[in-house]
Amino acid sequence: MQEVCDFYEEVFKPLGAPVVRVRPIESELIKLVNNAYLTTLISFWNKIHELCKKLGVETSRMAEVVKMNSRVSSYGADFFGRLFDSRCPSKDLDNTIGMFKGLELNPTLLEVAGKVNVRLKRVLGDDS
């Protein structure tokens, strides 16, 4: 295992890419958390877009101003009105929810992010 890690560290070194050594369970959890976080941001901005439309506010202008706050991630603010429809984010969100439930933890926030996406699919007429 050490030899494999050393090999990949050497491969990525010329690219200037950071190499972080973690255990396999940590690696999988990092991937799941990344995708759950990003899908939640997209769902958040889709709900804000829905609110903006009802109030007659231009979502993109409002998002540009909100993103000026250095504490606010811009990811998702540029995706409003669109699905997180690639296979990996949806699958990873489902897996993360399953992990929460398997450990008897409450995944409500993540479940809602998924429901926002499913609802938007229906609104957009996307049968995929």
List its traits:
128 residues; mainly alpha; 66% helix; globular
Task: Describe what this molecule looks like in 3D.
There is one protein chain. The chain is mainly alpha-helical. The protein has one domain (23-124): NAD(P)-binding Rossmann-like Domain (Rossmann fold, 3-Layer(aba) Sandwich). 66% of the residues lie in helices and 0% in strands. The chain contains 5 helices and no strands. Helix 2 (24-55) crosses helix 4 and helix 2 crosses helix 5. The longest helix has 32 residues, at 24-55. The radius of gyration is 18 Å and the shape is globular. The termini are far apart. 19% of the residues are buried.
CATH class: Alpha Beta
- The CATH homology group name: NAD(P)-binding Rossmann-like Domain
Which range does the strand content fall in? under 5%
**Any low-confidence stretches, pLDDT <50, length ≥5?**
none
> How is the CATH topology named?
Rossmann fold
Structural class: mainly alpha
Name the overall outline: globular
Most strands sheet: none
Number of strands: 0
> What's the SSE pattern?
HHHHH
Number of domains: 1
* Straight-line distance between termini: 40 Å
Q: Per CATH, which architecture? A: 3-Layer(aba) Sandwich
Total helical elements = 5
C-alpha Rg (nearest Å): 18 Å
Helix content bin: 55-70%
